[in-house]
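Notes, p. 3: input format for complexes.
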Amino acid sequence: MTTINIQNLVRKNILELKPYISFRDNSQFENPLLMDANESPFGEFNRYPDSTHRNLREKISAFKNISANQIAIGNGSDELIDLIIKIFCKPKKDSVLVTNPSFAMYGFYASINENEVLQLNLNDNFEIVKEEFLNIIKENQPKILFLCSPNNPTGNSIDDIEFYIQNFDGIVVVDEAYIEFSEQKSCIELINEYPNLIVLQTFSKAWGLAGARVGTAFSIEEIINLIYTVKSPYNVNVLSQNLVLEKLNQVENFQNNLNDILKERDWLKNQLEDLECISKVFPTDANFFLIEFKNAERVYSTFIECEILTSKRFPQIPNCIRINVGSKKENEKLINILKNI
Ligand code: PMP
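Output follows (341 residues plus 4'-deoxy-4'-aminopyridoxal-5'-phosphate):
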């Protein structure tokens, strides 16, 4: 167990903050009149959602075998990233460390909170160079380290991730948005060993609920309570909470869809590797491929002409386009277009 005092890492104003009491504890009543929240007595969705996400956290708790008190639910994991930065980073004082390239929202939210964003450049295989990591944290003492594994947009997982957690005195956020597609172990099992660790997961990717906006944070209870202190009262709506509860009752369906995506990923990989216009297909543990093209501009504009949207917003990795695995029909269409380039 690492000896890190979380209280010393939290912004003082946040420690002093009293949460806005927005939950209705009616568990001791049988059939109470609900006249406390200025809601309408009419309509199907007239009641506010449960701000503490009790049922959902209990369901996830049973599914993951982790205490419900160690789970926080956000309006997508995006919201959780924003809240974590606000809890720990003093504006204009603290900095965050991100790998480069990685998911852009860490830097985006840090910039909004006026925190410097330090970049740890990945090597040509998109790996972290340990020595560079140790140097940059020694020199700058960033407050939060964001590790994305599998990493967006590169697709690879971080090797020896515990090394970075062990060697960092601030908060380590391991973003596992794509973990279900990977054979790597989740870091969730480390949260009781490292009190400064927060693991993020989401229902947007493998669970197929991007439209519902539900993300999950796993950590020690103290950090989870801080998230519940600073979050907006009704951050996850009734429909979304119910949708996730339903999904968690149909795990077989989730497994089948996941297996289909993994099969399609294999098929796509084989097809892509044979194509003339491609110089490299990077290995992936996620549901997307980062692909280096001989002429990425031409490929990208051909995609646009064919009404296929892909992502090439990565100035650090020129000539690369990120393409996610679609349905069989979509993947076949993509490959046919690429064959004619
Ligand atoms: N983390 C990573 C690495 C992502 O790629 C994404 C979505 N693109 C998110 C977090 C945000 O996910 P959510 O839909 O849960 O906000």
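The chain is about 35% helix and 15% strand.
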